[in-house]
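A quick aside before the break. I want you to see a complete sequence-to-structure record at least once, exactly as it would be stored in a machine-readable document. Don't worry about memorizing anything.
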Amino acid sequence: MTTPTIELKPSSTPLSAAEREAILANPGFGRHFTDHMVTIKWTEGRGWHDGQLVPYGPLSLDPATNVLHYAQEIFEGLKAYRQPDGTVATFRPDMNAKRFQHSAWRLGMPELPVETFVEACDALVQQDRDWVPAHGGEESLYLRPFMIATEVGLGVKPGNEYLFIVIASPAGAYFSGGVKPVSIWLSEDRVRAVPGGVGDAKTGGNYAASLLAQAEAAAKGCDQVAYLDAVEHKWVEELGGMNLYFVYGNKIVTPTLTGSLLAGVTRDSLLQVARDLGYESEEGRVSIDQWQADTESGALTEVFACGTAAVITPVGTVKRASAEWTQSGGEAGEVTMRLREALLDIQRGKTADQHGWMHKLG
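That is the input. The structure line, written in C-alpha cells, reads:
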C-alpha cells in the first residue's frame, strides 16, 4: 500500500500573534481551532491519495453523502504538549492510530496506515506549533483526527470514497473550575453498547446514543452518566465519554474490556503508571451493588474517571434510582491525584518517559 505524501498549502492569512495569544489565554475545550487542517482522500481502486495541509475551513457535502444517512464516521482524540525545552511532543499517537484502524475495520471503512495517521498529526502540529500552549500548566493542543464516508448515494453499503481529516484545538481544563470531583448518575435502564456491537469503536453514533441518558443525568443534578452491561444490567462499564477506575487502598481496578467498552489510551496508560508508582493494577468486574456496598464499608476508597480530554477526574457523588452516596468525602482522593500528576508529568516532560510514550516533533 502506498503512503501518500502531505502537500503543504498553508494559509496566507493566519490569525495574528495577538489574536492567537488572546485565545490561548482562555481556550476552553473545543471552542477555537488552529489555522490549518490536514486532509487525505481514499477512493476504491486507488487507495489513499491527495494528502494536503490546507487552511482550516468548511466542508462541502452533497445532501446525499453517505455519512449523513448511514453514519459511517469514526474519530480519535490525542494531545500535543509543550516540553520544558520548548519542543513539542504528542502522547502515544501510534496507539490512537491502531485504535483508529480497529474502528475503521468495525465500521467497514478503509484502514489508514499507522505511519500515515502519525505523519498527518505531525504535519498539522508542526505547521501550527505556535498554537501549542506554553509549558507549565495543564493546557495542550487537542488533535481530532476523523474519517467520513463521502460517496454520494442512498444505497445501504460501505462507501467507496472516504475523507480523513485532522483538525486541532487549544485546550484548557475539560471541566471548568479545575480538578473538582464530578457527580455520577448510574443509569440502570439505558445501555451504551452491547457485546458484538460497536462499543469498542470510536464512532459518533455511540456518543449520540448517550446524549439522552446524559440529559437525564443532568436532570438528576449529575455531571456524568455511568452505564451498566447490556446483558445482566449489573456490571459497571464506563461513562458516556470516559473510562472508570476503582481504588481499593493500594489496588486500582478498571472494568475489563468486554467488546462493549472503548479501549481508552489513558485507561491503558494508567494501568502501567500505577504499577510504576507501586500500586497493584488490574482489570476486573465491579457490580453496581458492589460499588455501593464497598463504598459504605470503606473498602472502596476512591473512584475516578479518565480520558484524553479530561485526563483524570475524581468522582465525588454517585446517584442511582434507589440510593445516593459520597466517594472520598466528596473530595479528590490521594491516589487519584498522585496518578493524575504522574501521568501529566510524563506528558509535560517533567519526568522520565521510561515507556517511550512521547512522540517528539522537535
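Two observations worth writing down. The CA atoms of residues 108 and 344 lie 35 Å apart. The first helix runs from residue 17 to 24. We'll return to this after the break.
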